[in-house]
């Protein structure tokens, strides 16, 4: 994998971060393919998603997919992130 990016989502509490992380966990590995893969971590109030891709188009698609999944997890659980950095 030649390209990678770290997406970081901060939440108002550790519990909120854990709720989002648990919602996303089933997707890890399920949507990986030969062009991209993702890993997920929750530490304190922050959820991070590390994306790696073989090309920029796959990286962009991964970013779009995971940002959408995070948004759905937040809406479904009633959790708001305080920002993405």
Helix content: 25-40%
Shape verdict: elongated
Total count of domains: 1
Rg, rounded, reads 12 Å
CATH class, named Alpha Beta
Can you describe what's shown?
- With 85 residues, the chain is an alpha+beta fold.
- The protein has one domain: Alpha-D-phosphohexomutase, C-terminal domain (TATA-Binding Protein, 2-Layer Sandwich).
- Helices cover 39% and strands 31% of the residues.
- The protein has a 4-stranded antiparallel beta sheet.
- Strand 2 and strand 3 form a beta hairpin.
Topology:
Blueprint: E1 3-10, H1 14-24, E2 36-43, E3 46-53, H2 56-77, E4 83-84
Antiparallel strand pairs: 1-3, 1-4, 2-3
Key terms:
TATA-Binding Protein; elongated; four-stranded antiparallel β-sheet; 39% helix; single chain; alpha+beta; 85 residues
Give the structure's gist in a few sentences.
A hairpin with a 2-residue loop joins strand 2 (36-43) and strand 3. The chain has helices at 14-24, 56-77; strands at 3-10, 36-43, 46-53, 83-84.
């Amino acid at each position: 994998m030649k390209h990678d990016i770290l997406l970081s989502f901060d939440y108002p509490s550790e519990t909120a971060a854990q709720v989002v992380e648990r919602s996303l966990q089933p997707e890890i590995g399920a949507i990986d393919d030969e062009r991209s893969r993702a890993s997920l971590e929750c530490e304190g109030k922050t959820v991070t998603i590390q994306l790696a891709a073989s090309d920029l188009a796959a990286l962009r698609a991964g970013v779009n997919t995971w940002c959408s999944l995070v948004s759905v997890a937040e809406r479904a659980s009633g959790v708001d992130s305080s920002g993405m950095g």
